[in-house]
Amino acid sequence: MLISTQNLEKKYQVGSETVVALKGINLSVKKGEFLSIMGPSGSGKTTLMNIIGCLDSPSSGSYMLNNKTVSDLSDDELAKIRNSEIGFVFQSFHLLARNTALDNVMLPLKYAGKQKAEAITLAKDVLGQVGLSDRCSHSPSELSGGQQQRVAIARALVNKPSILFADEPTGNLDSKTGSEIMKLFKKLNEEGQTIILITHEDEIAKKSKRVITIMDGLIESDVENNDE
Amino acid sequence: MLVEESIKSAISSIKTNGVRSFLTALAIIIGTAAVITVIGIGSSAEKALEASIDDLGPRTLSIFPSQRKRGGISSGYNPLVIKDAEALAKNKEHDWMIAPAMSGNRQVKFNNSNISGDINGYLPINFKVRGFDIGQGRIFTEKENLGRKKVIVLGSKVPGELKTSANQLLNKDILVAGTSYKVIGILKEEGSTGWQNPDDDLYVPLLTASQRIFGTDRLGWINVGISNDTNVDYVMMTIEEILRQKHDIGPGGDNDFRINDWSQYSDLRRQATGIFTALIAGIAGISLIVGGIGVMNIMLVSVTERTREIGLRKALGATQKSIMMQFIIEAVLLCILGGILGIIIATSLLFLFISINDWVFSMPLSAIIGSITFSALVGLFFGIWPARRAAKLDPAVSLRYE
Ligand SMILES: Nc1ncnc2c1ncn2[C@@H]1O[C@H](COP(=O)(O)OP(=O)(O)OP(=O)(O)O)[C@@H](O)[C@H]1O
Ligand SMILES: [Mg+2]
Questions:
Q1: In order of start, what are the domains of chain A with their CATH numbers?
Q2: Is residue B37 situated within a structural domain?
Q3: Which helix (H) or strand (E) holds A113?
Q4: Is B7 in CB contact (< 8 Å) with chain A?
Q5: Which among B316, B319, B320 has the least Cβ separation from residue A108?
Q6: Is ligand 1 within 6 A of the CB of residue B397?
């Protein structure tokens, strides 16, 4: 099992009030799955992604990634796992504005301690994979939204992660560009990449193989999707 | 490659906020410029001073007569006389040049021109001790001195003061206090030493001056020329011994003369420059620390502004150490750039100052390395706290930050 969580809870202390964002999540994900997480705003989707993406730790419950318990690792150990096992794609791209596409994609390789020459080759490879071979030296401001998101996807993929997380990756894109990005995800999944996608659009969720709906910090439904 | 990435990121951050970076670094720039300017002026002044001491040729001590005190009451005045100088000259223990002199003001006349001139009674060796060079004609000889000959050597400006030229005066007679003297030489221009100008003076043999002009064997002073590697204290002791014996001063009696070591004055000047340098360096140090606080402030702002970037970098696998390094490098780089700019400004100022003063440019390399190192340390010290704050940011929270 790639991901397996037991009773994950996440509480936030806001002033004197305690916000319970996750109320006991039991979730298992196998390698190669293409999973959508749906739910209304504030239901806890991003919070869940942050925990299974090792960006945050749960208040209680346990989490195993690749059969290793990660809920009690140190900051730097988590950083290492994020670097090698996990790729993130965000709604607002989160590219470094002053760096070229190539430099943005190379960033995870730098933190992985790769040699420069090797890093450049790897980064150019993935940029080719997302169809941007000819945009390596462009800065984000010189790219369209769809192209920027492709750069972000290339950056997420460059260290060959076990899981690719995408939090509303099409939220800032028009529907045509959005569906192109979805096609890219589909292609990547067909090549074996595990993908966990967060969205609140049915149209988008339909493209995945399994849809989980979260309500108020609890999994409400978990259905296989055989539409396509 | 991570270090390279940090440096690249620091440079681009400093460049993007160019004006802000410059203003932040201003205190560092001013501090470094102040230190470097002062050290440069001090060092160049030192060089100029050394050059002017070398100009004097061998080192010179001067013996002056002074009042003898006994129990607080002045008792008699034992003058320095020609015999004292002869006694010193007889001593062969030291390789010194004894140059006794007397001087006074007398009427000097040539044709219808009339000036009041400083007449110096010199031995031929005096010219050597003072480093005077002859321009035209010659300097009088020991024989002329012993023969009390009425010959005279003029400072380079004297012909002009007598409303004539060196050529017109050479081998002519001029009147000194009504007696005629033959002009046998005119000195090269020597330049003022500050308290007197040898170019305005006239020079006759010492014995001539003593017997024909001043009517006394009292000397104004005795210069003692010694080579630079001489043990000055030992020379002074010998002078004291000889003169005390000549002047019949018993044990416990005070000297009735004093010995000046001119190089003491340059030591004093050097000391004063040293104190001045330390003072400015202190002020500059404070300026650098104020600059450091400014850098810290801007770095804190920068960390807040770039919260999302920090969150992203952490999401991509940046450890606390690498985030910390990135921000420390940025602070250090900002300070080093400030330091370099300060050095450039200071060096330009120095070149200006030095060309005005006609000095030789001199800047110890250690000052440059030291000031850059110090600004780097300021950056390191004041960069640590903001960098720690960046490193400790929670990635999940930072990514939400708008
Ligand atoms: N750092 C935090 N401090 C306090 N409360 C938080 C924090 N992060 C999230 N929350 C709360 O936790 C709950 C779940 O938030 P989360 O961001 O996971 O929702 P979401 O499903 O991703 O919403 P959206 O669709 O709008 O992105 C919300 O009520 C939110 O206010
Ligand atoms: Mg969300």
A1: 3-224 (3.40.50.300)
A2: yes
A3: none
A4: no
A5: B316
A6: yes
Q: What pLDDT, on the 0 to 100 scale, is given for residue B249?
A: 85
Query: Which residue range forms the structural domain that includes residue B307?
Result: 2-52+266-399
Contact A55 B315 (CB under 8 A): yes
Residue from the list A50, A107, A114 with its beta carbon closest to the beta carbon of B316: A107
CA of B26 vs chain A CAs: smallest distance (Å): 25
Q: Which of B309, B314, B400 sits opposite A79 (nearest CB)?
A: B314
From the CA of A45, how far away is ligand 2's center (Å)?
A: 6
Atom of ligand 1 nearest to the CA of A44: 18
**B336 is a domain residue:** yes
For A152-167, the pLDDT digits (tens) are 999 999 999 999 999 9
Residue identifier of the C-alpha nearest atom 14 of ligand 1: A44
Q: Do the Cβ atoms of B309 and A79 come within 8 Å? A: no
The total of structural domains in chain B comes to: 2
Q: CA separation (Å) from B199 to B158, B163, B273?
A: 7, 15, 30
Q: What confidence score (pLDDT) does residue B255 get?
A: 85
Question: CB–CB of A212/A51 below 8 Å?
Answer: no
Put simply, the chain B residues between 15 and 34 with a CB less than 8 A from any chain A CB are: 16
Q: Is residue A4 scored above 80 in pLDDT?
A: yes
Mutate to test the pocket of ligand 1, among A8, A10, A11, A12 (most ligand atoms within 8 A of CB): A12
CB pairs under 8 A between A and B: 67
Task: Kindly indicate the confidence band of residue A183, based on its pLDDT and cuts at 50, 70 and 90.
Answer: very high
> Is B57 a member of any domain?
no
Based on the domain organization, do B167 and B303 belong to the same domain? no
Same domain for B31 and B73:
no
* Interface touch B318/A111, C-beta < 8 Å: yes
Q: B360 and B387: one domain?
A: yes
Q: What percent of chain B has pLDDT over 90?
A: 54
Distances (CA, A) of B348 to A168, B352, B370: 57, 6, 19
B187 and B279 belong to one structural domain: no
CA–CA distances in Å: residue A215 to residues A5, A23, A31, A145, B276: 17, 10, 25, 30, 75
| Residue B170 contacts residue B209 (beta carbons within 8 Å) | no
Report ipTM for this prediction. Answer: 0.95
Burial of B307 (0-12, 13-18, 19+ CB in 10 A): middle
Phi/psi of residue B99, nearest 5 degrees: -125, 85
The answer to whether residue B53 scores a pLDDT higher than 80 is: no
B44 with B145, same domain: the answer is: no
Q: Are residues B109 and B228 in the same domain?
A: yes
Number of Cβ within a 10 Å radius of residue A1: 11
Residue type, A17: E
Provide the whole-model pTM: 0.71
Shared domain check, B298 and B318: yes
Same domain, B292 and B389: yes
